[in-house]
Every structure is written in C-alpha cells, then in structure tokens.
What does this fold into?
Amino acid sequence: MAEANWYVVHTYSGYENKVKMDIEKTIENRKLHDQILEVSVPMQDVVELKNGVRKTVAKKMFPGYVLINMVMNDETWYVVRNTRGVTGFVGPGSKPVPLSAEEIAGLAGGESPVVVDFEVGDSVTVTSGVWEGTAGVIASINEGKQSVTIHVDMFGRETPVELGFDEIKKL
It folds into this structure.
C-alpha cells in the first residue's frame, strides 16, 4: 500500500472548518479511514493586547488552507477535490505536492505572537511603574522584546523611555 503524506488544500476564505467537516463526513460515509487519515485546520494561540488587557485567542495559522494526511490515489484525490469549498490542491497544475518533513516540523510552532492595538505615533499613557500616569507618544515598537519606546516630556525636553507592552494603554 502507498505511503500517506500531508497535502495542502486551498479553500474559500472562511470555509476551512466547513471543508474539514465535509471531508470527515465523506471519510465516514465512504469508509476511507485507511486512506484519508487526518484533516486539520492548524490553529495558533495569539496573545492580543488591547487597552492594557491581555487575551489569548486561537487563530488560523493559514487562512484559506486545510492540511490533509492521506494516501494519494484517484479516489482520495476525487473526494477532496470535489468537496464544496475546495478550490484545489497546492502544487503545480493539477499535481498535488506533499509537504516535506522539514515543513511539517515547522508547523509545530513556537512562542505565541503578541498582537497589539497601538502603533508608532499613537498617544499612550503609562499604567504602572515609575512613569505611571505619564502620557507620551510611541516612537518605536520592538515586538521581539515586547516593548515600546515612548517620548515623554521631562524638564521641557522629550526623553525616550522603554516600557513593556503591558505597561501602557492607548489614549
């Protein structure tokens, strides 16, 4: 029997979960458990920081795509390709290309990214620490360190101050 590989299927945006459910239902109805092993919509936890409040939200890693671990043959290709919402397999022409072991390992993911609701030039106020209550303007954002540099008025001069994402709040 042929070896199962991971393939990427392109879907209409927003239809990923519907496509996953429809393919799983077809697997059940046609008894294809031994040929289509897993259907996945990869999710990633993202930390959102809005108005100083941290919230962890699950978001799709690849909007518009579904991953399928399957044995590629005419029947499985037909089932997946003719599922409502599927626009096709990822690959040149009509030939699906399986993901490599390195690409699959890369999907394991690492640290959750932080999404903030402020940008350079926004006015913010400091919510904690030595500078609490001080207002300033964001000069730069360092996502790696999860910090911002703001300019505060001290002794009549603009002074740069580095603060963490959770230490400021947008005005």
About this structure: The chain has a mean pLDDT of 85.
